[in-house]
Amino acid sequence: MSVPTELGYTAKHEWIAVEDGIATVGITAFAAEALGDIVYVETPEVGSEVTAGETAGEVESTKSVSDIYSPVSGEVVEVNEGLENAPETINSEPFTGGWLFKVRVSEEPADLLSAEEYTKLTEGEN
Question: Which positions make up the signal peptide (predicted)?
């Protein structure tokens, strides 16, 4: 499984890319694979505030329901509306078309893992 090196990761299997103060958040391929076929996604509402480390939504698969944790604090400025009708995009494109939401960052994210650190973490979970 390929882990993009340009992203940051959390131990709870979210990824983040920050550009010009806007963070794009998604779940990793490892998480998508562990969940199985994703059938529903609940994202935070545009305009709502999210807090780093706190629940920001959930992903439901044929196996289970899992919380999504925000890796950053700030205001949600966009959600991936395409997931409403095609949540399985997270399974097929977790790092591209399967992104979940975007946040105007109020403070820089801390405690993110590098791709190498995240790969080591997930190797222990297989």
Answer: none
The answer to the question of residue 47 being in a domain is yes
Q: For the purposes of burial, counting CB atoms within 10 Å of the CB of 38, is it exposed (0-12), middle (13-18) or buried (19 or more)?
A: buried
How far apart are the C-alpha atoms of 91 and 77, rounded to whole Å? 23
Taking phi first (over 0 means left), then psi (-120 to 50 degrees means alpha), and beta for anything else, what does residue 66 get? Answer: beta
The whole model's pTM is what? 0.94
Which structural domain, as residue segments, surrounds residue 78?
A: 8-105
In a domain, 3, yes or no: no
